[in-house]
């Protein structure tokens, strides 16, 4: 019997996932949690097989939750559930130690298949996510997948603080044109149109750099 824990702040989504998992005789939903506060104290002693973690939680980033779980109890398997298809989230989920990444549009059969594979020690990514991963590696074989550079992270932090491109350029001792290039690259990586959308996403998703 595979024991499963669900961490997601949307009640209806949890109910739906539980209903799907109950159709599989080898699965047992051990508990469900709306936020990480109630789950955190249990992590060190948990013997569950898989924890399904929403990437967007009320108080913290699901990516940070994955890192915490893997640091405290590495034997636990963690699958990210996400409505995000951007490469940034996938790359950072892998870095955090996630054992799988399943898009919330995935079919029930795909969720069940993913859990079974992860329990066996394999990695699993839902169909759309797998395509993204393959395309990413194929398009940039010399560098691997697309990460934010240290300079891009600096630029984002300055943008969050309200600095203009010229002010950031002065602080980093580069030309304003260079900062504009960084901004364009950052927006492209996130799949966004402007800096306002970028800052909003960072705040909403509690992304740390």
From TrEMBL:
Q: What are the Response regulatory domain coordinates in residue numbering? A: 3-119
Question: What keyword terms does UniProt attach to this protein?
Answer: DNA-binding, Phosphoprotein, Transcription, Transcription regulation
Modified-residue entries (4-aspartylphosphate), positions: 54
InterPro entries recorded for this chain? Answer: CheY-like_superfamily, NreC/VraR/RcsB-like_REC, Sig_transdc_resp-reg_C-effctor, Sig_transdc_resp-reg_receiver, Tscrpt_reg_LuxR_C, WalR-like
Q: Name one Pfam family in it.
A: Response_reg
Gene Ontology MF, one: DNA binding
Q: Which Gene3D superfamilies match?
A: 3.40.50.2300
**Which GO terms are recorded in the biological process aspect for this UniProt protein?**
phosphorelay signal transduction system; regulation of DNA-templated transcription
Q: HTH luxR-type domain spans which residues? A: 141-206
Entry-linked PANTHER family? NITRATE_NITRITE RESPONSE REGULATOR PROTEIN NARP (PTHR43214:SF41), TWO-COMPONENT RESPONSE REGULATOR (PTHR43214)
Q: What is this protein called?
A: Response regulator transcription factor
């Amino acid at each position: 019997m595979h024991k499963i824990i669900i961490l997601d702040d949307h009640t209806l989504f949890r109910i739906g996932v539980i209903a799907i998992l109950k159709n599989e005789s080898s699965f047992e939903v051990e508990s469900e949690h709306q936020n990480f506060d109630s789950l955190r104290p249990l992590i060190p002693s948990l013997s569950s097989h898989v924890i399904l973690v929403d990437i967007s939680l009320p108080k913290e980033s699901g990516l940070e939750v994955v890192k915490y779980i893997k640091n405290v109890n590495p034997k636990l398997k963690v699958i990210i559930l996400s409505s995000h298809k951007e490469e940034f989230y996938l790359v950072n989920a892998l870095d955090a130690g996630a054992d799988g990444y399943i898009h919330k549009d995935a079919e029930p059969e795909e969720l069940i298949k993913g859990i079974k594979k992860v329990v066996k020690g394999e990695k699993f990514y839902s169909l759309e996510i797998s395509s993204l991963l393959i395309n990413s590696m194929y398009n940039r074989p010399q560098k691997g997948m697309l990460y934010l550079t240290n300079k891009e992270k600096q630029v984002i932090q300055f943008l969050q603080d309200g600095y203009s491109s010229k002010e950031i350029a002065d602080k980093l001792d580069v030309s304003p044109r260079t900062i504009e290039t960084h901004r364009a690259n950052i927006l492209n990586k996130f799949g966004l149109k402007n800096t306002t959308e970028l800052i909003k996403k960072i705040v909403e998703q509690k992304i740390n750099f």
